[in-house]
Amino acid sequence: MDTERINRELLDFLDSSPNAFFAVANMAKKLERAGFVRLSEGDIWTLAPGGDYFVTRNGSALIAFRVPAGEWSGFNIMASHADSPSFKVKTDPEISVEGNFTTLNIEKYGGMLCRTWFDRPLSVAGRVVIRTESGVESRLVCVDRDLLMIPSLAIHMDREANSPSAVNVQTEMLPLFAGKCDKGAFLELIAEEADVSPDDILDSDLYLYNRDAGKIFGLNGEFIASGRLDDLQCAFASLTGLLESEPTGSVAVHCVYDNEEVGSGTKQGAASTFLADTLRRICSSFGGDGEDFLRAAANSFMVSADNAHSVHPNYQGKADPTNRPYINGGIVIKYSANQKYTTDAVSGAIFREICKRAGVPTQTFANRSDMIGGSTLGNISTSQVAVNCVDIGLPQLAMHSAYETAGAKDTAFLAAAARELFSCGIRRTGEDLFVIE
Ligand code: CO
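That is the input. Now the predicted structure with cobalt (II) ion docked in place:
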């Protein structure tokens, strides 16, 4: 796919995916359009050779897989995450300020760069759970207009405003919602969007999102900018690769978790059984037993794809002296001696070989030895399903800002590597001997 087209498609996906619920719904739509069959975790699965399937959990995590028409020995997995740092709207959110303003009570979801959320149009999106005749039903809601703003304090009232200082989320970041308004006005607005009466809304998960659309910028259009590039850029590239793949020898598995930004410890996060459950059910649907599942796991390979830090042009000293990834330089393989990244010599070598076959450049990342760095989902996921795993990502700047910057060339690189991963068969023939077909 050409770079221009993949970037347009990526930005459309980002703009229509204000949070994990929408990212998963949009991926599900794409998969259904491509002929994938939706499975439910509550039903019996009857799978066929050559079949394409997907399953979601909590509406915020998704696994899609393609079964080869012929023999297969394991799973080739690419895992990413659908969630991004944001602010969750608390229950009963309106706060009246001196009878002249109404702000909303919110709390942090994940570790964002707080100041980037000031002075830009925001709105809310998420899900409401409503009362129905027979029980409860979940419904997605997105208020698709400029609704909220977190105004900063004028420089005249805070001469220290340009020196770094912590932001108090409870007192300084409550978004301005209205002038004087009645208690319950927020819920009424959400009910109207969901096309139900406010009394029928039993509960909700609603998050702020940045209204600014994604953009391509730079003298020659070298860069892209958008909210949620971490990690929807990888999720999108993985899905693109899956849709273009021709699986042979291994089941191709596109796995997108939720809740990476808050430690992955939920039923739909990387620490959950979602992936293990799905792989086990694929095996048993083809008549495999527990032994067959363990054999398939031993013949599997996982790529944990979560965005990486590019060298920053204004802060070059923050990067490692020798491992210096740059935007538009290709896929970043991440290393950590403490195994915060799962990459080891074996998994790194296999992934390099896959990229070489795909004609895709790679670069490497390691944290400076005097910096701790972040964490990701690879090592959490492999504690649930013990497979060979490599940690990679696309290079970006301003990670966890409300508006992040990445490279215009890199999405196509990861899509091509994903297509290669999902099309090849990886088989173990000895402890650390692998055949890549
Ligand atoms: Co991430």
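The radius of gyration is 22 Å.
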